[in-house]
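lol ok so funny story. i was supposed to be doing the assay writeup but got distracted and ended up predicting the structure for this chain instead. priorities right. anyway since i did it might as well share w the group, maybe its usefull for someone
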Amino acid sequence: MVKKTIAVLGMRCAGCSASVEDTLRKMDGVASANVNLAARSALIEFDEKKVAPEQMKAALADLGFDMVIEDDRDVQAEERKNFTRLRNRVILSWVFALLVMAISMGWIPVKPALTANLIMMGLSLLNLVLCGRQFYASAIRQLKHGTSNMDTLVSLSTCISFLFSVFNTFWGDQFWSSRGIANHTYFDASVMIITFVLTGKMLEEKAKNGTASAIRSLMGLTPKTAHLVVDGMITNTPISALQKGDTIEVRAGEKIPVDGSIIDGEAHVDESMISGEPIPVLKQQGDQVLAGTVSKQGTFRFKAEAVGEKTMLANIIQMVQQAQGSKAPVQRTADKIARIFVPTVLGIAILTFVLWWTIGGSAMLPNAILSAVSVLVIACPCALGLATPTALMVGIGKAAEKNILRKDATALEEIRRVNAIVIDKTGTLTIPNLNVDFTQANDLALDERETLKPYAREAMQELQNEGIDVYMMSGDKEEAAKYWADKAGIKHYRSRVMPQDKENLVRQLQSEGKHVAMIGDGINDSQALAAADVSIAMGKGTDVAMDVAQVTLMGTDLRRIPEAIRLSKKTVGMIHQNLFWAFIYNVICIPLAAGLPYLFGAHWQITPMLASALMAFSSVSVVMNSLRLKWTK
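and the output, tada:
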């Protein structure tokens, strides 16, 4: 089984992402598929022997979506082109909309009425074909597969408005006059629906690009080319062509292209993107250098040891992508609702039409049609689909910028509940003196054998101020354990513990009703890490600890622990806000669009034009609300 994050283009609402998800999950060999609407990607776990990415791509193509499996495709460049095309359609649609509105409102006098209607009909038809054809093509594809999405609602509402207006243009006077009803056309409604929806999508796409800025920043850390040394000759070579064992030269001010070890020269290297430490580190012959870090001074040559997807930076990017593509437990309810949302709205729209016509008779037929159209337009599933993933993308991205890596969205949601922390001493809370032999240790003072990590005491104090109990565990003797617990300001500690003892403490605290986080960096911590509600590893720890851990802290600054907890609380709080507003928007607006005010004597209703504006605003507001996390301290 392999797990990959693959870009999927063409998704526009929660219905789209649900269709992609369902299609992938039904394929033989696919174990799981989580689609992220905001990230335009799918996190897929599949058996390569049973299903190939090409088969997934073909299945999604039938629905009108494009899975990017080609290595040479520049997704960001394609997204920029798509955004430019969308912007051009928005501008053209506004030209049509303003012209139709000007004629409809009498700002441009056109006589007789038939001529005005014919001109508006022509402009509306051009708008539907040139600016809105994507909605109709998508709706037809969805219908063929027995599914529906936002495009279904937009297509139905605009077609009904347009066709009703065409009928009134040619036969309206004869049909309505016999019933004593004034004849009106609603070409402006069909045009404005398209215009507002497109405008909303453009603003939404612009805002969504901001939610993905963190991952783009990480990707931008790798240079495009490297100085490859072959037989003493240096050539500029694309990164993709580098292989393990190549000799590469890096000069002052340049980024290191891949992971490796220095074989000649020395330099001060800025590793802050990996360690979070701002001071450049002196690297000499034999020292390891990492992709994405920067040589601040000096020139050196090194031998490539990990290239492509094997570098630490690539692993970090993959971890962030997978975390952003995963789903928090809170999203499950939203996903279930999204799957039945569009059919439910279609049912409400039909019911609205039937009730208006039944209660008011033929005199209320125009109102019945407009009310049904308003319901179709205003009930947009986009806000519901964007509520969770946009907040997750920003929250996980902001954490990555601060060197806090989360394995999945569940970890982000769970860490906010932590009220007890078990922390390993050596290597996690303290830095051991590697120059000391474990035979000389007894002859040295405790603070000569190891030192407390910078800001460790401040971090422990922050945690305890938040009401979190901290327990230090150490295999060291009682005297040493007590000394370092006191230095770090930790009240609870245990000495001479074995790996099983750490796990036992975690389970004991859990039995007392505690939500426990375990922080460690070694193989001896892996049992406790696996048992804890939230597992946190130090980035310079062992691979085993980092594989088990849900959260990895790069560098040595333990203040990232309380920072991770605070950021988790803010992110989950933002998700709840988004979901609340997405739900409440539909709860309030659908009845208003259906004409509920009339039951209480109010003679007004939400028109299709206003409905389309409100629908666009709801999606944009959810994304913009999530972006507030980026500027939150």
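DSSP finds 22 helices and 22 strands in the chain. The chain has a mean pLDDT of 84.
back to the writeup now i swear
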